[in-house]
Design brief:
About 80% of the residues lie in helices and about 0% in strands. The chain contains 2 helices and no strands.
Length: about 90
């Protein structure tokens, strides 16, 4: 894979930023859904602690999975665009 243009490097930088932001949002939503009942209802301490532990674990798993998924999709899209012998799918007749 030869030298990349500035536009390609910028595209990758934007994609990394998107992956991190969307992963942060997804992890926050998962955490809120699991830990939310702790704020709404009075529960025993052990249940509250368990909810927080489960929410933290789930959010900790969702974050890297989302980052990897977004970046792999981007890599496949870039790889498909740069593959030799492939017709240009970005042309006006695509």
């Amino acid at each position: 894979m030869g030298e990349r243009t500035q536009a390609q490097r910028d595209e990758t930088t934007v994609e990394i930023g998107y992956a991190l932001c969307s992963a942060t949002f997804a992890a926050a939503v998962v955490f809120g859904v699991i830990a939310g009942p702790k704020l709404m209802f009075t529960m025993p301490y052990a249940v509250e602690l368990g909810l927080l532990l489960a929410a933290t674990t789930a959010a900790g798993l969702v974050f890297p999975i989302r980052v990897v998924t977004v970046l792999r999709r981007h890599a496949r899209r870039v790889g498909r665009r740069l593959a030799p012998g492939q017709p240009d799918r970005t042309g006006p007749d695509a």
